[in-house]
């Protein structure tokens, strides 16, 4: 790719413990350009696919953001947190009943196809211009609008006495931590999301991605070579 024309898409494997905005800031420094954005926020806890758009790539940001996502995750049963994930404060602990595979299958099956999901208070959705997580930090709870979401597929990968590993393919705007919270309620013991990894977004998977460490340390020329051109992105999407 011509280094004078920094337009395209860079697939980054986000590390845990950092925000999606942190990744954008690193990309701006490493690529030497300010026109950088990302498609679909990943919570600090989560790892995996973050689509970083550069230059004219920012014009297709909304298009790429609207596509389906695939995640693999682990939910921890018996512990409910205020953020619905492992980064939050524990609200309550409950005993975990001996669950049969049929009970677990039924709880997951209840959240297939189309349904409404209530976004968590600890989220980036804005109420009167203020992100909900800022209001939540002030101890406030506000009315949230349920979101219409869709699950295309799910798979229960492994069940342990206090944890369930799963895979889910879902629409944009889907909160996987709320999914864990809701399934925990269905199982009668509560749950929170212990870990999460986004493995696909639209037609993109992690195969050609760069790690955050590589984004920080690789020479600019190497990063530019790893970027997907806009025509390549268009071909991949079948557009």
Please give the structural blueprint:
Layout: E1 8-14, H1 20-31, E2 36-39, E3 47-54, H2 61-65, E4 69-77, E5 79-81, E6 90-93, H3 101-109, E7 113-117, E8 126-127, E9 130-131, H4 132-137, E10 147-160, E11 163-170, H5 176-186, E12 191-201, E13 204-205, E14 210-211, H6 212-217, H7 220-226, H8 230-236
Parallel strand pairs: 1-14, 3-12
Antiparallel strand pairs: 1-3, 2-3, 4-11, 4-12, 5-6, 7-10, 8-9, 10-11, 12-13
Strand residue content:
25-35%
The chain-level structural class is: alpha+beta
Mean pLDDT reading: 90
Overall geometry:
elongated
Number of E-type strands: 14
Spell out the key features of this protein.
239 residues; alpha+beta; Pseudouridine synthase; 2 domains; 10-stranded mixed sheet; two-stranded antiparallel sheet; 8 helices; 26% helix; 34% strand
Structure description:
- The structure is a single chain.
- The protein is of the alpha+beta class.
- The protein folds into two domains: 8-66 and 203-236, Pseudouridine synthase (2-Layer Sandwich); 69-200, Pseudouridine synthase.
- Helices cover 26% and strands 34% of the residues.
- It contains eight helices and 14 strands.
- The protein has helices at 20-31, 61-65, 101-109, 132-137, 176-186, 212-217, 220-226, 230-236, and strands spanning 8-14, 36-39, 47-54, 69-77, 79-81, 90-93, 113-117, 126-127, 130-131, 147-160, 163-170, 191-201, 204-205, 210-211.
- Strands 1, 2, 3, 4, 7, 10, 11, 12, 13 and 14 form a ten-stranded mixed beta sheet that branches. Strands 5-6 form a two-stranded antiparallel sheet.
- A hairpin with a 2-residue loop joins strand 12 and strand 13 (204-205).
